[in-house]
Amino acid sequence: MIKDLKQVLTLFCLLSLLQGLRAQQLDHSWENLVLKSTDNWYATEEALVVANNVLLYQNENGGWPKNKQIHQPLSPKEIAQLKKDKTKKTGTTIDNGATFLEMTFLAKIYQQQRFPVHKDAFLNGLQYLLNAQYDNGGWPQFYPLREGYYSHITYNDDAMGNVLQLLYDIMQDKAPFSSLMLAPITRGKVALAFQKGVNCILKTQVKQKGMLTGWCAQHDVATLQPAKARAYELPSLSGKESAPIALLLMQLENPSPQVVKAIEGVVAWFRQSQLNGVEIKRIYGENGKVIEKQVLTSPNAKPLWGRFMDLEDNTPFFCDRDGIKKASLKEIGKERQNGYRWYTDQPQAVLDLYPKWREKLLDKRQDPTADLYNMVVAQDGMGHFSSIQEAVNSAKAFPYQRVFIHIKKGIYPEKVTVNEWNPKISFLGDGVDQTIISYDDHFSKVNTGRNSTFKTPSLLVEGDGFIAKNLTVENTAGPVGQAIALSVNADQVVLHNCNFKGNQDTVYTTGTNHKVYFNNCYIEGTTDFIFGSATVWFQDCTLHSKSDSYITAASTQEGIPFGFVFKSCKLTAAEGVQNVFLGRPWRSHAKTVFIDCNMEGHISPLGWDNWSNKAAEKTTFYGEYNSSGAGAHLTNRVAWSHQLSAKEALDYTKEVVLGGTETNAKNKWYELD
């Protein structure tokens, strides 16, 4: 009996020599070692020896080559060559389980032994996968890219499926990946990559006469259409590659309507395209290798599917290395006939699972419209989406009722846009410290000219009636110039119990006739961190200055009665900040008023600055009423500002500022849940 790993590895080496020219991809011993070894084995010294090989094979870009029996002992010469090859710019791939298997191995051994080097290597591999993903969500077979079919979006042999399964297990914090304790920002990037991958799957699903079917083994990266790979791998519908894609989608806890349609479509197609009464008989030679395959009629045979099926009518076809379609297996040469798996039974697993999946789905969806108006975004895969933007993109345009998007805890590192055709959307977070939208664009990074500032927001709201509750929006670019966290160019927008974090230009609200309401929010920044032309009411908010500069820069348009109004707010500052102005006029008719606000000692006694524009002193309106605290130097304010009387202050109510002529209307927009 073989008792130790050295004996096992030696036996593997002897078998390799005896197998001669046998293709390495047919040897699954490395795959079996990774996926079938017990936790106890991963805790052994022998496993550490193999782990060292895994590290040696890893390229500097984080990926691994394919068709390597990584667990086999290495000679000093091989070790030296591997170290030399680490800097190669080609050869790393996700084909034939490469990178996926090595990362799985590293996670499993780290779970048992907790050596940082294994976690670091895993994270480098993860970054490799994130870097390799196309903007459209797909993955190429090789990265860095190689010319030819290698650059196609590759479902072949579960290449992209393996990557997505890995990402999904990380999102779900599933063992062994739970032991890695990944940072929230990393988990957020994983969730976005997964969502993009799912979107790519949905976009590449082939239609026949308007009906969803399955997928090709590879799709063109630009057109997303089925694409050719090797000479005998023509554009087609693939039973083998479509099955694991469907199984992946069926794992999603709260599938979106698009995912549901995709699953329903592929299930119907599997039923339509299955081959009944067909059996594949293999004839073996003396050496145990297949020398012939026969397609026989057998009434009791289990259903089969063609690996390659015609895109128009699902008819199975076969090819030799000449690339010419054949109608039957016997029409191609023995080398391709016997050396390729032309039929598959994998779709049966999808059909077997489908009834339970459908029952579970119906249990959750008593209201068939629920998903249209109540969506869940969650990074652990337990929602409809793992990306906020994809949830917004899936919302009905110009809906008749409010759309609620529940955003579960996590850091979501994405730029989010709520478009003009997406009114009545609510973002509901799990708490300001739990749900965080985060991005790091800034003026110089965007670099599209003098107006680059307006392309920097982490969250851009253009849909009227937007509501956000219990979340944080941040721009993490740092003190590098203009970098917006929240940009609002919409009417009747409510921000309740939210944090907005950044430096210069944190919050931008614009639109001559737009009204915005901030309630119980925290807003921080350095220079002009609240700016714009909209009419905005800030109720019970905290304004936190991070440097000596200006809080507001209103650009209220001429003839508009109100600009920024701060009611019962607190003005605080970071340690060492001593000279902050309440505001300066970005445009000459700026209006800003503070009522019943508490100001710490960092507020300049002068209060306001004219931005080197003496004429603006006559056209702006800057005022205060009943300011308190060490910064309320009311008698020292600039002469052209205003200390409101009690009577004048009565004109500054929420109903008057936000309600306009509808002050007596019921269910005012800013009181909506």
TrEMBL record:
Gene3D superfamilies, sorted: 1.50.10.20, Single-stranded right-handed beta-helix, Pectin lyase-like (2.160.20.10)
Keywords tagged on the record: Aspartyl esterase, Hydrolase, Lyase
Enzyme class: hydrolase
Classification via Pfam families: Pec_lyase, Pectinesterase
Domain Pectinesterase catalytic: 374-659
Location of the active site: D528
Cellular component terms per the entry's GO annotation: cell outer membrane
Pathway info: Glycan metabolism; pectin degradation; 2-dehydro-3-deoxy-D-gluconate from pectin: step 1/5
TM annotation in the entry: none
InterPro entries xrefs: Pectate_lyase, Pectin_lyas_fold, Pectin_lyase_fold/virulence, Pectinesterase_Asp_AS, Pectinesterase_cat
GO BP: cell wall modification; pectin catabolic process
Swiss-Prot/TrEMBL catalytic activity: [(1->4)-alpha-D-galacturonosyl methyl ester](n) + n H2O = [(1->4)-alpha-D-galacturonosyl](n) + n methanol + n H(+)
EC number(s) given by UniProt: 3.1.1.11
GO MF terms held by the record: lyase activity; pectinesterase activity
Keyword match Lyase: yes
Family in the record: Belongs to the pectinesterase family.
Protein name: Pectinesterase
Organism: Croceivirga radicis
